[in-house]
Amino acid sequence: MNPTPSAAADAIEVTALDLVGPGAVACPNPKMALWSGHPKVYIDVATTGSGKCPYCGTAYALKAGEKGPGH
Q: Which conformational region is residue 54 in: left (phi greater than 0), alpha (psi within -120 to 50 degrees), or beta?
């Protein structure tokens, strides 16, 4: 996971290797300073290319050209 925000709405840019399950990213992740700050949720980024955590508001974006599992 790339800790630097991407240009797309200051989202954390993720690659297909960061995805779990059917194209989701887990939040929080162990690389976050407050990784235990809220319950773990899975945010679908493969379907629309981006998503936002309902607890902490962290935005995630699938890196341009990356595809989720099965794509």
A: alpha
Average model confidence (pLDDT) across the chain = 80
Q: Kindly report the number of other CB atoms within 10 A of residue 21's CB atom.
A: 12
Which pTM value belongs to this model? 0.75
DSSP state letters, 19-46: -BTTTEEEES-TTSTTTTSS--EEEE-T
pLDDT at 55 over 70: yes
d(CA 43, CA 27): 7
In three-state secondary structure terms, 16 is helix
Strand, coil or helix: 18? helix
Q: Read off the pLDDT of residues 23-38 as tens digits, 9 standing for 90 and up.
A: 899 998 767 776 667 8
